[in-house]
Amino acid sequence: MMIELKMLSPPRQKNATYLMADYAELMCLVHPDGELSVCDVVARVYQSAEFEPLREIEMSEGSLIDDEEHADIFKDSQMRAGTDWFEHLRYRQNDFQAHYPFCVGNDRIIRRCDLSERQMLYLFLLLCANLRLIRKTCRSPLTTGFERISAKALESYLPGFTVHLFGKSGAWRGDYPNKLADAIDWLADNLRERNISDRKEIGEKNTGDGGLDVVAWRHPCPDDNAPGSLICFAQCACSPDDWKDKQIESHYLNWRHRIDFIHFPVNFMFIPLCFRDAAGGWFRRDKIRDSIVMDRLRICHLLRELPSLEIDFYEAMEIFDDTSDIF
């Protein structure tokens, strides 16, 4: 199976340093030399048509800067942006440690050779976070693999819990019935809670997951059938934009009309993004809404012992045969 990167185009939000850092890593990953300077990255980003500067900048007093002066101002702003992206890359190198597959200096990023499985996991998550660059016919192994990785990470975070894939990637393993209505029956029974969903409202042909990808629970007593256990619901999303709205899909508010919980589940959101600023905080804390976000850093930390993920990283990382259409 071949994962093919489309023509590498930069993200539109160049002020989102975590996305631009991803782009620099992808450029380095596919570059024949495996090495790029900050000037290389900046030149590549700003040659894109969507980043073309205005030919003239109007000053407050109404005068115009000539082309040469404008070019100098724009070049300075470009380099400041590139410096910010590399500051974020150095943060990643420091915090991801053994998982990080690049070496970053003050003005250069270099792809490491002979990558470890931890570093392959990082690159796998990097690709999952940039599905827009992956041909649609090749995305399924990444999205399915990311759900499995999320389940394993949650299992590591919650020792002693029963953890299952509830989404479509779990159905093929025979864990769940094909119909969502039957799956909710199974789930309520295992959670020892009451199913109050309306099968007619759900639909007999509905084979979706209802917005729930991973579920975990731990009962206080093995033989106690009374309701009231610690339950965790999780949604997985790869898109840099969609995950912010998807947080509600696995939330108690979206499930309380299906299952009569005696206590609401804890809500998790798994994303392959490194949703951080250069200091290690959340890039935009206000985008996190009543969920525990598990991003690339937390996932890598939880999987530092690398349990069996049932994913052939080396097969998935065969990105393409020829880079001539990119460089």
Q: Please, could you describe this protein's structure?
A:
With 327 residues, the chain is an alpha+beta fold. The chain folds into two domains: 17-136, no CATH class; 144-308, Trna Endonuclease, Chain: A, domain 1. It is 38% helix and 12% strand. The strands form three sheets. A five-stranded mixed sheet has the order 4-6-7-9-10. A three-stranded antiparallel sheet has the order 1-3-2. Strands 5-8 form a two-stranded antiparallel sheet. Strand 2 and strand 3 form a beta hairpin. The longest helix has 30 residues, at 67-96. It is elongated and about 65 Å long.
N-C termini distance: 23 Å
Mean pLDDT: 82
Low-confidence stretches: 51-67, 319-327
Q: How is the CATH topology of the largest domain named?
A: Trna Endonuclease, Chain: A, domain 1
What would CATH call the class of the largest domain?
Alpha Beta
Number of separate helices: 12
Give the total of domains.
Answer: 2
Q: Spell out the helices and strands N to C.
A: HEHHEEHHEHHEHEEHHEEEHH
Strand content: 5-15%
Q: Give me the side-by-side strand order of the main sheet.
A: 4-6-7-9-10
Could you say which overall geometry the principal axes of the C-alpha atoms support?
A: elongated
Task: Tell me what the CATH architecture of the largest domain is.
Answer: 3-Layer(aba) Sandwich
Rg: 23 Å
Keywords:
327 residues; alpha+beta; Trna Endonuclease, Chain: A, domain 1; 2 domains; 5-stranded mixed sheet; 3-stranded antiparallel sheet; 10 strands; disordered C terminus
Helices and strands, with pairings:
Layout (H helix, E strand, L loop, with lengths): L16 H14 L4 E3 H9 L20 H30 L5 E3 L3 E4 L5 H12 L11 H18 L4 E4 L2 H4 L8 H12 L2 E2 L3 H4 L11 E5 L11 E7 L5 H5 L5 H4 L3 E2 L5 E5 L21 E3 L1 H7 L10 H4 L11
Parallel strand pairs: 7-9, 9-10
Antiparallel strand pairs: 1-3, 2-3, 4-6, 5-8, 6-7
Helix pairs in contact: 1-3, 2-3, 5-11
